[in-house]
Design the sequence.
């Protein structure tokens, strides 16, 4: 297992989705619910608690 894989070990979503949520949150100064709505437009169902954790 590589170091990048170990960072996302046992997470529900793939690393690409997690990285995109984190990038969007910091890049555009979005709230958790904004990220949740943005992912919903891409047909990815998550809650703001998922983003927060």
Sequence:
């Amino acid at each position: 297992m590589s170091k990048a894989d170990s960072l996302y070990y046992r997470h529900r979503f793939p690393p690409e989705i997690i990285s995109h949520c984190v990038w969007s949150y910091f890049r555009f100064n979005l709230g958790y619910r904004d990220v949740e709505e943005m992912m919903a437009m891409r047909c990815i169902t998550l809650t703001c608690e998922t983003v927060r954790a």
Observations:
- The mean pLDDT is 82.
- Helices lie at 3-7, 15-27, 32-41, 48-52.
- The chain has one domain: 3-52.
- Residues 9 and 15 are 9 Å apart (CA to CA).
